[in-house]
Specification:
Layout (H helix, E strand, L loop, with lengths): L1 E3 L3 H31 L6 E4 L3 E2 L5 E7 L2 E12 L2 E11 L13 H4 L4 E7 L16 E2 L4 H7 L5 E7 L2 E2 L5 E2 L14 H28 L3 E3 L7
Parallel strand pairs: 4-8, 6-9
Antiparallel strand pairs: 1-12, 2-7, 3-5, 4-5, 5-6, 7-9, 10-11
């Protein structure tokens, strides 16, 4: 017969910690499943041929590309009565660029047709730093506020994530052109996080019972023999 005399405070702490670890693991697993699904969804694309770039309205949005921090260059284009922002360049570095030191991407200056994913703005997260509109610095894509900071009207509620052009002239896919609800973090990372949280839950259970065994509070009760 097994004898088990649990320590009250340790048991309470273990149960609460176990529930938290299982919840975190489930949350990361749900993110893995969702982003795996989103990775197979097509992102709507559009092409704009007649436009005029507005260099003085450029804005800089912080982002991480291939593990390197930097700034996405959002250039507004006047096309008809509307203004559409285009994300077509990335400047690596922690310090934000200066407006007077940056030119619109070459593809926009030469009037080539702009083709890319049609994207919506994104709300700030709980830990997103506040923007600095006077410096044209943003930490999430807020198209309406970016337009106001540049003194622009009729700003569209979507932007175009166009391919980036490297220094050698080769175009590469825009890493921020992802399906709605997704983000640059790959699904595999969320799977790894889920397994980590669940692994910690298993370790917690093992430590809990191992401690009770070592303290003599869990084990086989001595058998009673009748005389």
């Amino acid at each position: 017969m097994i004898r088990f005399r649990p320590l009250p405070l340790m048991t309470l702490f273990a149960v609460l910690s176990l529930a938290l670890l299982l919840m975190l693991g489930r949350w990361q697993w749900d993110r893995y499943v969702l982003k795996t699904h989103l990775a197979h969804q097509a992102v709507p694309e559009m092409t704009i041929e007649n436009y005029q770039p507005i260099a003085e309205g450029m804005q800089f949005v912080y982002g991480i590309r291939d593990g390197e921090p930097g700034w996405r260059v959002f250039t507004p284009m006047q096309t008809g009565d509307a203004v559409i922002y285009v994300d077509a360049d990335f400047i690596a570095g922690v310090a934000a660029p200066k407006l007077n030191e940056v030119r619109p991407p070459a593809a926009l200056r030469y009037g080539a047709p702009v083709r890319g994913a049609s994207m919506r703005g994104e709300p700030p997260g709980a830990f997103t730093p506040p923007p600095r509109p006077l410096e044209r610095v943003w930490y999430n894509v807020d198209l309406a506020a970016m337009g106001r900071a540049a003194g622009l009207e009729n700003v569209a509620d979507y932007y175009i994530a166009a391919p980036y052009v490297r220094a050698d002239g080769r175009a590469v896919p825009n890493p921020f052109a992802h399906a709605p609800g997704a983000d640059p973090l790959p699904p595999e990372r969320h799977l790894g996080y889920a397994l980590t949280w669940w692994g910690l839950a298993v370790v917690l259970v093992g430590v809990y019972f191992a401690y009770h065994v070592s303290a003599g509070r869990l084990g086989l009760a001595p058998s009673r023999r009748d005389d």
